[in-house]
Amino acid sequence: MRTMPKRLQKGDTVGIISPSSPPNLENLKKALPFLEEMGLNIKMGKSVEAKNGYLAGTDEERLADLHAMFEDPEVKGIICAGGGYGAARYADQIDYGMIKENPKVFWGYSDVTFLHNAIGMYAELVTFHGPMLASDVGKPEFHERSGRMFGQLFQPFELHYDESISELETLSGGMADGELVGGNLSLIRGGIGTKFELDTKGKILLIEDTGEEPYQVDEMLNQLKQARKFEEVAGIVIGDFKNAEPKKPEQSWTLDQVLDDYFKDMGIPVVKGFKIGHCEPHFSVPLGVKARLDANAKTLTILPGVE
Questions:
Q1: What is the β-pairing status of strands 299-302 and 159-161?
Q2: Dist CA 93 CA 40 (whole Å)
Q3: What is the average pLDDT across 180-195?
Q4: Is 252 a catalytic residue?
Q5: How far apart are CA 48 and CA 57, in angstroms?
Q6: CATH fold of the domain at 159-302
Q7: Residue of 71, 259, 273 whose CA lies nearest to 169
Q8: Catalytic residue chosen out of the listed positions 21, 278, 282, 284
Q9: 19 pLDDT exceeds 90?
Q10: Which pLDDT tens digit goes with each residue over 75-111?
Q11: Which of these is catalytic: 61, 208, 212, 213?
Q12: Which of 18, 20, 110, 186 is catalytic?
């Protein structure tokens, strides 16, 4: 069992970091009142505004921010400003023992998936797959439901997803219980063959992505299949795949055809259509907690992520 971080309370301080690419600073500024309205104080990481090509500062600077926020007893939670690329570059340098001794809320998605999986594996900490400040919260289209999902950090409660939230489609029936793991498909694929390769045995696997054409999704799913990630997985939650339309549709499968090819009548529960990922609203979930996927009823139930 992973350690659950302590719930946030009004008056707590949260640290803001840019673990990957430079965030849109205007959007970040617009997002900060959202945190303040929840009663949170804000501490900015030193490299949040740094730019080093497509990276938010050097690997050493971003790593130092991550370490500093986990080590700082004043900081009760860490929320990522944005994703992009680069978190995996320093994953092998993270002090997971220190994180394990200082468990706290860690929130983000997309490129942050690599950190979720690494921290879950080596610090055994429950983390949160949810919208980020500059990437999502600071944008005009940020949905009220997405904002309400931050409430799970302040009060432990089960999450329930059914078709009242979005239309769902069962690709393969059945029901399964297991630890919810995963996130961005590209980053899950990126861990294969490394010491951060995701263990899917007996787990409920979440996948989502953005900007990948059907053949690219096919390529990534094929790699997971060849790496035997689907052989003992308990169930699969298919989140949002934004901008997945083929550039040459007359020469391509659709995304639905790709997903059907891998998951139709798979023998384990598989459901697609969850608004989890690069979408609005964005249904935020804790990773590393027990979940139940009922493909027949088309429901997903997830236990609380904080204590």
A1: antiparallel
A2: 30
A3: 98
A4: no
A5: 8
A6: Glucose Oxidase; domain 1 (3.50.30)
A7: 273
A8: 278
A9: yes
A10: 999 999 999 999 999 999 999 999 999 999 999 999 9
A11: 208
A12: 110
110 is known as an active-site residue = yes
Q: Tell me the average pLDDT across 165-175.
A: 98
Local confidence band at 205 (pLDDT 50, 70, 90 cut-offs): very high
**What is the b/e burial string over 89-119, where b = at least 16 CB atoms within 10 angstroms of the residue's CB?**
bbbeebbbeebeebbbbbbbbbbbbbbbbbb
pLDDT greater than 90 at residue 1:
no
Is residue 20 part of the annotated active site? The answer reads: no
Q: Where are the domains of the chain?
A: 13-153, 159-302
Return the amino acid letter for 126: V
Question: What is the chain's mean pLDDT, rounded?
Answer: 98
CATH number for region 13-153: 3.40.50.10740
Buried b (16+ CB within 10 A) or exposed e, 39-66: ebeeeebebbebeeeebbbeeebbbbbb
Q: Residue 152 is which amino acid?
A: Q
